[in-house]
Amino acid sequence: MTTPVVRFAPSPTGRIHIGNARVALFNYLFAATHNGRFVLRFDDTDFARSTAAFAEGIEIDLAWLGIAPQVTLRQSERTSSYEATAERLRAMGRLYPCWETQEELEKRRKISQARGLPPVYDRAALNASGEDRARWEAEGRRPHWRFLLERKTVEWADLIRGPSHIDCASLSDPVLIREDGSFLYTLPSIVDDIELGISHIIRGEDHVTNTAVQIQLFEALAPEEPVPVFAHHNLLVSGEGEGLSKRTGSLSIASLREEGYEPLAVAALATLTGSSEAVRAVRTLEELASHFDLAHVSRNPARFDPGDLAPLTHRTLALLHYEDVRERLSAHDIVGFKAEPFWLAVRSNLSRFDDVLEWWRVVEGEIEPVREDEEMLARAFELLPAEPWDGTIWGQWTAAIKALTGRKGRALFHPLRLALTGKETGPELAALLPLIGHAKVAARLAPCRGQAA
């Protein structure tokens, strides 16, 4: 395989949701697996709805997921290329003007359907006379422009769906340019794909029906170049089986970030759901790429259950090394010689990353101990070893308490956990004890304690 070049091409008319992220991740991981390039292209020719704020938000969302494009461009800055290509197509006789109104076209479609015929555009505009055109112009009509399809069957080898084909005789010549002169998606997309050297187009299966038209455009505009390889993957649907919508904010990446889910958990669930690979926690996108294969993607809709994100986030945090989170810990002022052993001690007990703040308070701050058994705590206080402490001190101390009091199991450990952390459950106290330190432990165990240490 030659070095692949792929692209993610969102329209900045809203924030991306998990389904959009799936497309971006499929492309990014494919490029990463094959040492290729990933292009971020903003399809922002819808000037009424596209905004710079949405584009910036999409870049933020992708960066949060760990996706770093090698190239970023905006179609709104490339209009001259599209206009030049339109002129080429007109000169080739492949782009022709049509003067029908939407009402007239709709009436023709209904007539065709009533006759049991497919609602395919009849190419009446090709037979329009000069007098017809003059009359329409006098009425104030402006033409839209259609691409003249070859009436043939277009075939391609889809990397997910396998051998695929569409009979273009069943399709209407697609409109490429609106009456107001603005471009629809198709022409700018093909122009950019050719100029950027896009080798693989990986996208949702809702675009399958567009493929034959686009292949004909590739063949018309770049006859000497190979047509990109296509891969159409299954779509994510909600737990209720409904499609996801950017307009309604369904499972937006921004909302998932605000809820505290780990980006790697979101990426793993978005990528591996609907494939033969088991959804699993990963430490890096590189590791996720090693489990990613287009050949393993199912043809059936992929049901995305947001309820899976919480346990997957928990498992993901438990995998992360200190170096993976150093900057994030530092942002919360968790620094110094305790930072790394602290992370290793608490990472398996986190539901969200920000839970570290509560455990850092247990280690470095003030808490209100829960005193369940004053007599046992008094004995523990008396037997508290002097520093220095290491990882063995917890075992030594609890062995001495057990020998003196006869306590064991929950009767021994639970009162100590409540007094030292104020919590019912948590990280192993063998790891926490040296981090809390002798002074704080002694203060939390001291008899007749009236207030927090």
UniProtKB/TrEMBL annotation:
<dbReference type="InterPro" id="IPR014729">
    <property type="entry name" value="Rossmann-like_a/b/a_fold"/>
</dbReference>
<dbReference type="GO" id="GO:0005737">
    <property type="term" value="C:cytoplasm"/>
</dbReference>
<keyword id="KW-0067">ATP-binding</keyword>
<dbReference type="InterPro" id="IPR000924">
    <property type="entry name" value="Glu/Gln-tRNA-synth"/>
</dbReference>
<dbReference type="InterPro" id="IPR001412">
    <property type="entry name" value="aa-tRNA-synth_I_CS"/>
</dbReference>
<feature type="short sequence motif" description="'HIGH' region">
    <location>
        <begin position="10"/>
        <end position="20"/>
    </location>
</feature>
<dbReference type="Pfam" id="PF19269">
    <property type="entry name" value="Anticodon_2"/>
</dbReference>
<feature type="domain" description="Glutamyl/glutaminyl-tRNA synthetase class Ib catalytic">
    <location>
        <begin position="5"/>
        <end position="309"/>
    </location>
</feature>
<feature type="short sequence motif" description="'KMSKS' region">
    <location>
        <begin position="243"/>
        <end position="247"/>
    </location>
</feature>
<dbReference type="GO" id="GO:0006424">
    <property type="term" value="P:glutamyl-tRNA aminoacylation"/>
</dbReference>
<feature type="binding site">
    <location>
        <position position="246"/>
    </location>
    <ligand>
        <name>ATP</name>
    </ligand>
</feature>
<comment type="subunit">
    <text>Monomer.</text>
</comment>
<feature type="domain" description="Aminoacyl-tRNA synthetase class I anticodon-binding">
    <location>
        <begin position="374"/>
        <end position="446"/>
    </location>
</feature>
<keyword id="KW-0963">Cytoplasm</keyword>
<comment type="function">
    <text>Catalyzes the attachment of glutamate to tRNA(Glu) in a two-step reaction: glutamate is first activated by ATP to form Glu-AMP and then transferred to the acceptor end of tRNA(Glu).</text>
</comment>
<dbReference type="InterPro" id="IPR004527">
    <property type="entry name" value="Glu-tRNA-ligase_bac/mito"/>
</dbReference>
<keyword id="KW-0547">Nucleotide-binding</keyword>
<keyword id="KW-0648">Protein biosynthesis</keyword>
<protein>
    <recommendedName>
        <fullName>Glutamate--tRNA ligase</fullName>
        <ecNumber>6.1.1.17</ecNumber>
    </recommendedName>
</protein>
<dbReference type="GO" id="GO:0000049">
    <property type="term" value="F:tRNA binding"/>
</dbReference>
<dbReference type="InterPro" id="IPR049940">
    <property type="entry name" value="GluQ/Sye"/>
</dbReference>
<dbReference type="GO" id="GO:0004818">
    <property type="term" value="F:glutamate-tRNA ligase activity"/>
</dbReference>
<keyword id="KW-0436">Ligase</keyword>
<comment type="similarity">
    <text>Belongs to the class-I aminoacyl-tRNA synthetase family. Glutamate--tRNA ligase type 1 subfamily.</text>
</comment>
<dbReference type="InterPro" id="IPR045462">
    <property type="entry name" value="aa-tRNA-synth_I_cd-bd"/>
</dbReference>
<dbReference type="Pfam" id="PF00749">
    <property type="entry name" value="tRNA-synt_1c"/>
</dbReference>
<dbReference type="GO" id="GO:0005524">
    <property type="term" value="F:ATP binding"/>
</dbReference>
<dbReference type="InterPro" id="IPR020058">
    <property type="entry name" value="Glu/Gln-tRNA-synth_Ib_cat-dom"/>
</dbReference>
<keyword id="KW-0030">Aminoacyl-tRNA synthetase</keyword>
<dbReference type="InterPro" id="IPR008925">
    <property type="entry name" value="aa_tRNA-synth_I_cd-bd_sf"/>
</dbReference>
<dbReference type="InterPro" id="IPR020751">
    <property type="entry name" value="aa-tRNA-synth_I_codon-bd_sub2"/>
</dbReference>
